[in-house]
UniProtKB/TrEMBL annotation:
Residues 1-315 form the Carbohydrate kinase PfkB domain. The keyword Kinase applies. It holds the Pfam family PfkB. The keyword Lipid metabolism does not apply. One of its GO terms (molecular function) is kinase activity. It comes from Aquirufa beregesia. Transmembrane segments: none annotated. Belongs to the carbohydrate kinase PfkB family. Keywords: Kinase, Transferase. This is Sugar kinase. InterPro entries: Carb_kinase_PfkB-like, PfkB_dom, Ribokinase-like.
Length: 336
C-alpha cells in the first residue's frame, strides 16, 4: 500500500502527573505531539504506511522527538534538522467541572524558521496516495505556509488525495498576513476538508444563507461552489457534559447529502488532546480500507472516542478495540 504523508510542527508536551495542576507540579512528564504527526502515528499503528515531514533542532530534544514517532512506526526520513529550539506546550488535565488547560511556548521554533527549499516534495510524495495538513502549519510562519503550498501543488500534480483540518487558531497568526490572505489558496487544492461553521466564517467569510434548513449544509454548499476541487466536507460535534464526560458524533457532506454518524458517549475521559487527530486518522483509514462513507465516519468517531481514554497525543487503540466500539459495545469489558 502506498503511504500517507503528513506535514506540520511537532512539539514537546510537558504535563504534571495525574490530574495535578501546573502551579503545584514538582515534576513534569515529557512526551511529543503535533496535529498532523498524530495522524501519521495513529495510521501507522493501524498498519497504514505513514511518513511525517517537519523540522527539528539538531540536538537531543529534536532527536528524542524523532525517536518517539519512529517507535510507533512513522517514517521520519524526511525530517530536516537546524534552528535553535523545539516548540513546547504545557497541559494540565481537567476533571468534572474543571477544564483542561494548555499553555504554548512555541515562538521561534525550528519549524517556524524552516526554509521551503529544504523539502523536495516530488521525492517525498512519489510513493504517496494521501497528503494531510492542518491550518496550524500556515499560521506559524510565512515560510511554513509556503512549504505547505508547495506540497499541495505537487500532490495535486501527482493525483494524490489532499485533506486538511482547516483548524483556525487566531493567536497563531502573528507574522503579518491574515488567515483570509493565506488559507483560501491552500484550501483550493484540497479534496477533503474538516470544517465547521465557525472556521468557515473566520477563514472564508462564509455564513449560513438562512434558507437551507441546516446551517452547516448551507456553509458546505457555498464552500464547494467556491472550491470545486473539494469532494467532501466533514466535521465533528462534541457534547460537553463535563471535563470528564463528553459525547461525540460526526457529519459528512458530499455535495448532495449530509450523512450523520451515531453518537458515542465517552463516560470517563483520560486525555482528550489528539482526539481530532484520531478522528482524521480514522477517517483516512476508512477511506483507504473500508471504502464506505458511513463506515468511515463510524470508524473515525469510534477511534476518536477511544483516544480520549489513552494518555498522550497519539491514538494507540487497536483495530479490534475500534471495531468493538463501532458495534456499540461501550462496556469496556475485561478481555483475557
Amino acid at each position: 500500500m502506498k503511504k500517507v504523508v503528513t506535514f506540520g510542527e511537532i512539539m514537546g508536551r510537558l504535563s504534571p502527573p495525574g490530574y495535578g495542576r501546573i502551579v503545584q507540579a514538582q515534576s513534569l512528564n515529557l512526551t511529543f505531539g503535533g496535529g498532523e504527526a498524530n495522524v501519521s502515528a495513529a495510521l501507522a499503528h493501524l498498519g497504514i504506511p505513514a511518513a511525517h515531514v517537519t523540522k527539528f533542532p539538531d540536538h537531543e530534544m529534536g532527536h528524542a522527538a524523532t525517536a518517539y514517532f519512529r517507535k510507533v512506526g512513522v517514517d521520519m526520513q524526511y525530517v530536516r534538522y537546524g534552528g535553535n529550539r523545539l516548540g513546547l506546550y504545557f497541559t494540565e488535565f481537567g476533571a468534572a467541572m474543571r477544564p483542561s488547560k494548555v499553555v504554548y511556548d512555541r515562538a521561534d521554533s525550528s519549524f517556524a524558521h524552516l526554509d521551503p527549499k529544504e523539502f523536495n516534495w516530488k521525492e517525498i510524495l512519489k510513493d504517496a496516495q494521501w497528503f494531510h495538513w492542518t491550518g496550524i502549519s500556515p499560521a506559524i510562519s510565512e515560510s511554513a505556509a509556503q512549504a505547505c503550498k508547495e506540497a499541495i501543488k505537487v500532490a495535486n500534480d501527482l493525483g494524490i488525495t489532499v485533506s486538511a483540518d482547516v483548524n483556525y487558531r487566531k493567536n497563531l497568526w502573528q507574522y503579518g498576513k491574515s488567515v483570509q490572505e493565506v488559507m483560501p489558496d491552500l484550501i483550493a487544492g484540497c479534496d477533503i476538508i474538516v470544517c465547521g461553521k465557525g472556521d468557515a466564517e473566520d477563514i472564508l467569510n462564509i455564513v449560513p444563507d438562512g434558507i437551507t434548513k441546516s446551517g452547516w449544509e448551507s456553509v458546505c454548499k457555498q464552500i464547494m461552489a467556491h472550491f470545486p476541487r473539494i469532494k467532501k466536507i466533514i466535521n465533528t460535534k462534541r457534547g460537553q457534559i463535563s471535563a470528564s464526560q463528553n459525547t461525540l458524533s460526526a457529519t459528512s457532506f458530499n455535495g448532495k447529502q449530509v450523512l450523520k454518524s451515531e453518537t458515542v458517549e465517552i463516560s470517563q475521559i483520560v486525555d482528550r488532546i489528539g482526539g481530532g487527530d484520531a478522528f482524521m486518522a480514522g477517517y483516512i483509514y476508512g477511506n483507504l480500507v473500508l471504502k464506505d462513507e458511513a463506515q468511515s465516519l463510524s470508524f473515525a468517531v469510534a477511534a476518536s472516542a477511544l483516544k480520549h481514554t489513552i494518555e498522550g497525543d497519539i491514538n494507540l487503540a487497536s483495530l479490534d478495540e475500534i471495531e468493538t466500539v463501532m458495534k456499540g459495545d461501550l462496556t469496556g469489558r475485561l478481555k483475557r
